[in-house]
UniProtKB/TrEMBL annotation:
It comes from the Bacteria. It comes from Robertkochia marina. Signal peptide: none annotated. This is OsmC family peroxiredoxin.
Length: 140
């Protein structure tokens, strides 16, 4: 069974230093929450994790299927609940693909496989949020 290990150390005020299997970075609250804004925000980091997890899946499938894609990005907007503990209850995830020869059917299949089967972060999000996924093709 695979296990990840991170160590997070308080650096005073609202700032923390954290290790990750591939590197390290700082986490901090914004000024509105008493921090200095000198690091990533914990909840927004979850959204980056969602995009990164699904993005890696899709990139692997683009490579495996040898699809012509000039670029793609994942745009996520998420709504926090009003009551504490505040968490994302509504998430909209947009996959944007760019290129003159996009295979829409195959790219949609790659997105579907990621969000329905492979992305573990998506599986976690679906336990607490209403997640909507859209795929947008930009033929250039």
């Amino acid at each position: 069974m695979k296990t990840d290990h991170v160590v997070t150390t308080w650096k005073k005020n609202m700032r923390f230093h954290t290790t990750n299997p591939a590197g390290e970075f700082h986490i901090d609250a914004g000024p509105e929450d008493g921090g200095d804004g000198d690091g990533v925000r914990p909840k927004a980091l979850m959204l980056s994790s969602l995009a990164g997890c699904s993005g890696i899946d899709v990139a692997m499938m683009i490579k495996k299927m040898k699809l012509a894609v000039d670029d793609f990005k994942i745009d996520i907007k998420a709504q926090l609940t009003e009551e504490h503990p505040r968490y994302y209850d509504k998430v909209t995830m947009e996959f944007h693909f760019y290129g003159p020869e996009l295979s829409e059917k195959k790219l949609q299949r790659a997105v579907d496989l990621s969000i329905e089967t492979y992305c573990g972060v998506m599986a976690m999000f679906k336990k607490f949020a209403d997640v909507k996924v859209e795929t947008i093709f930009h033929h250039s």
